């Protein structure tokens, strides 16, 4: 090991900054910190009247992946839409069937 370190020699150190340069850097850092503290935080905008929260952003709902035959899903989706309109989607059908199954 001695031979390796001896062959590298002394690694030059960067020159020390003078006190005025250090003071300038400290002033820049202090200014940036003050700007960060004073930066206005964005407040969430209130939702417009009449808008509803989607299921994907509602914490009461969770995504579930299931495998069903394509033929059954298509037929069930069409029948559900015919009976309940386009305002109800496939997840509403599944929720309806689950609540009936558990008796809720």
3D architecture notes:
- This protein is an all-alpha fold and 104 residues long.
- The protein has a domain at 56-102.
- It contains 4 helices and no strands.
- It has helices at residues 2-8, 19-38, 70-84, 90-102.
- The radius of gyration is 33 Å and the shape is elongated.
- The N and C termini lie far apart (76 Å).
Question: Runs with pLDDT <50, length 5+?
Answer: none
Shape: elongated
Distance between the termini: 76 Å
**Radius of gyration using CA atoms only:** 33 Å
Relative helix content: 40-55%
Following the backbone from N to C, one meets helices and strands in this order, namely: HHHH
Category from helices, strands and their pairing = mainly alpha
Report the major sheet.
none
Find the count of extended strands (DSSP E, 2+ residues): 0
Q: Report the total helices.
A: 4
Question: Proportion of β residues?
Answer: under 5%
Mean pLDDT: 78
In short:
By secondary structure, the protein is mainly alpha-helical. The protein has 4 helices and no strands.
